[in-house]
Design a protein that fits this description.
Blueprint lengths: L2 H10 L22 H6 L23 H13 L3 H8 L19 H7 L7
Helix pairs in contact: 3-4
């Protein structure tokens, strides 16, 4: 399919008009989730950090709902999922962050996928 047709279809049927987890058309919350998926999501709460680490964070506990979002991003090219996931990351204000660095991805994966999901 050529680029113009893809852009036209995306403007008529945007990716983010469906639930970010289950893909159904529904009334979505501010995070892009339908009510059913919102009920199944668990926000991440960090345990004490490992030695020599200031801390770590993630948007969600990895479960059925969040795994569908991650798999859509990584394997179905749903790049809009990255923005949704990023909205839920809570960085404590006491952290002194100098930089955020994405996890490197093997060059074969980048070539196959076309992007590094952690960079998004």
């Amino acid at each position: 399919m050529n680029g113009f047709v893809k852009k036209l279809l995306r403007s008529l049927f945007p990716d983010d008009a469906v639930c970010a987890s289950c893909g159904r058309e529904a009334v979505l919350d501010e995070g892009g989730l339908c009510e059913e998926c919102r009920q199944g999501i668990e926000l991440f709460v960090a345990a004490p950090p490992p030695d020599n680490t200031d801390g770590y964070t993630a948007p969600f506990v990895y479960n059925d709902v969040s795994s569908r979002m991650v798999k859509r991003l990584k394997y179905n090219g749903a790049k809009y999922e990255a923005k949704i996931l990023a909205r839920f990351i809570d960085i404590p204000s006491v952290w002194k962050i100098d930089a955020v660095v994405p996890v490197p991805l093997h060059c074969k994966r980048i070539k196959k996928r076309g992007f590094n999901q952690s960079e998004l």
